[in-house]
Amino acid sequence: MPGDIIVLREGEKVPADARVIFASTLKVDEASLTGESEPVTKTELTIPAASSGNVPVADQKNMVFKGTNVLSGNGSAVVVATGLDTEIGKIAVEISSIDTEIPLKTNIHYLPRLIIIAVGIISTVLIAAGILSGESLREMFTVAVALAVSIIPEGLPIVTTLVLANGVSRMFS
């Protein structure tokens, strides 16, 4: 909860975004958030530019962020944000709002329509051919429904998963 005090120790993952209030040689790996390859030394000192509110995450030396790891030292901090209000949570919200249409997704959406149209055409032709050959409408309708039910693939999700797994296997080797 915001306002709680957390203790930061070497080897632990930071549980929330927090403002450092005590640091003893505290170094944090922020690569997952900022992409920096070197550990960042954290301090309890106030950042002069912080009053403007536009300090980049990489320059906030008095803050620790959810999902980063303490590499060395220890310290304590006051929680300022949890869940989706954290920096990593904001990134997650941005990623989830991206709606890109990949070709496979488009084709999978198109496939059921294609199957329904094909079943409709085949069923109509089958009923017409049966009636023209002297069969009753009731019997031909029953045959058409049985055919339609058997054509619609029950295992489509399983087949899609297997095709994707096979593609990943080919890319790997």
Task: Give the topology.
Elements: E1 5-9, E2 17-29, H1 31-34, E3 40-41, E4 63-64, E5 69-81, H2 87-96, H3 103-132, H4 137-151, H5 156-172
Antiparallel strand pairs: 1-5, 2-3, 2-4, 2-5
Summarize the structure.
This protein has helices at 31-34, 87-96, 103-132, 137-151, 156-172, and strands spanning 5-9, 17-29, 40-41, 63-64, 69-81. The chain has 173 residues and is of the alpha+beta class.
Describe the structure.
- There is one protein chain.
- By secondary structure, the protein is of the alpha+beta class.
- The chain folds into 2 domains: 92 residues, Calcium-transporting ATPase, cytoplasmic transduction domain A (Distorted Sandwich); 70 residues, no CATH class.
- The chain has 5 helices and 5 strands, in the order ββαβββαααα.
- Strands 1, 2, 3, 4 and 5 form a 5-stranded antiparallel sheet that branches.
- Helix 3 runs antiparallel to helix 4.
- It is rod-shaped, with a radius of gyration of 30 Å.
- 14% of the residues are buried.
**Helix count from the secondary structure assignment:** 5
Q: Report the average pLDDT across residues.
A: 86
Strand content: 15-25%
Structural class: alpha+beta
CATH class of the largest domain: Mainly Beta
CATH names the topology of the largest domain as Calcium-transporting ATPase, cytoplasmic transduction domain A
Termini gap: 47 Å
